[in-house]
Design brief:
There is one protein chain. By secondary structure, the protein is an alpha+beta fold. The chain has helices spanning about 1-5, 40-45, 70-85, 90, 100-115, and strands spanning about 10-15, 15-20, 50-55, 60-65. Strands 1-2-4-3 form a four-stranded antiparallel beta sheet, with no helix packed on it. The radius of gyration is 14 Å and the shape is globular.
């Protein structure tokens, strides 16, 4: 699962607004679907103000402050988060759907400690 989540394509981009398509999102089982509140780590990436994910379309809408970041930096940082998840794959695979809150907290903690682009 982790190695496909960071494979995405840019669907649309204008300064301050970026829409990505992540095909694998549509295949995530419903009991693993996350609410918007689970994307706190992505919102802590420098400049990102909002992230909306659709499990139906596989699209992610990202709103960001053009004074703080740009499309290229956002994509680079999201890929770094994907790599971080891959590097810690065995740790995160130990969690089951009932433990997704704990898994998200651990990923946020790990992201803050390893990524200099996390505010």
């Amino acid at each position: 699962m982790f190695n496909t989540l960071y494979k995405f394509q840019v669907m649309h981009s204008i300064p301050g607004r970026l829409r990505l398509h992540i095909p694998y999102i549509k295949k995530i089982p419903e009991n693993w679907h996350l609410e918007e509140s689970y994307f706190e780590l992505a919102k802590k990436v420098k400049g990102i103000s909002k992230l909306e994910l659709s499990f139906v379309t596989g699209n992610v809408l990202i709103l960001y402050d053009v004074k703080l970041t740009n499309e290229q930096d956002i994509i680079k940082n999201l890929k770094e988060l994907g790599k971080l998840a891959l590097q810690n794959k065995s740790f995160f695979e130990k969690f089951n759907p009932e433990q997704k809150d704990e898994m998200i907290r651990e990923f946020i903690r790990l992201g803050k400690s390893k990524c200099d682009f996390i505010e």
